[in-house]
Amino acid sequence: MSAIIRNSLPFGESTCLIEDEQAIPVNQLPQSWQDIYAGKSNTKLSDPQAYVKMAQLFLHKMSHGDVDLFNESEDFLDCKPAFCEIFGQLAWKTLEFYGEDFDINKYPNFDLIENELSLEQEDYTERKKIIEIAKDLFKEFGYDLPASFYHVHLAPISRKEISEVRPLRFSEEDRKNARAWDASLHGQKVFPIQLMVQSISSKHGFFQEHGCGCNHAMARVGATDTSFDYQIRPQMRTTWIRDFIWTVWYEYAFYKFVPVTRFLVG
């Protein structure tokens, strides 16, 4: 297995320890992450060193098969070399993408987007509310969440109707962004993050919908519904954000391994 890893992946076999867990050394991460570590990146992460450590751990676990499937049973050990080769490559590409997605130039220019709205649109006010939701999300999480997280919440304003249900995997218009957008939506299985999103959305008269069939829509809150206030507990904030980032990474990596069918779209 080690020969496969050494010969097929764009980094070496050396490892280091992060809090007693095996990890890939910083100098073997994609260049964007080495730049984040060295303080040379165009990012504004509140704790860049923690993000780099997560990247080191993620790349090691994916490229060395450090997962329960192999750690808790010998039933699939013959598959481990193939797993390490395939998922090591996917982990590398995932980190390449998100190393760039944290660049501050990737984030939406909310004022510019708002200025580009047409006052003549019948649903101008509602489209403006979508932008306000994204702006409030940015006020809450800032640059600690990737740019694609904010772009997916702005996506409804580019559609014919903001409540349009769009199957991301099968949408020609969204194909370029589908993988990262889907990862950000599935990352909200970290429920406190989703509660924060829904709380902010509800204050503007909306709630978010995303099905596991990769449908995505903004649905209006009915007249009998009310907004609700949710706040992430300060002592858990770092944990939930790290959980979200980690989940987004593996969702992005596994994206093309998910069995999909148009039957779910209906």
UniProtKB/TrEMBL annotation:
It comes from the Bacteria. This is Uncharacterized protein.
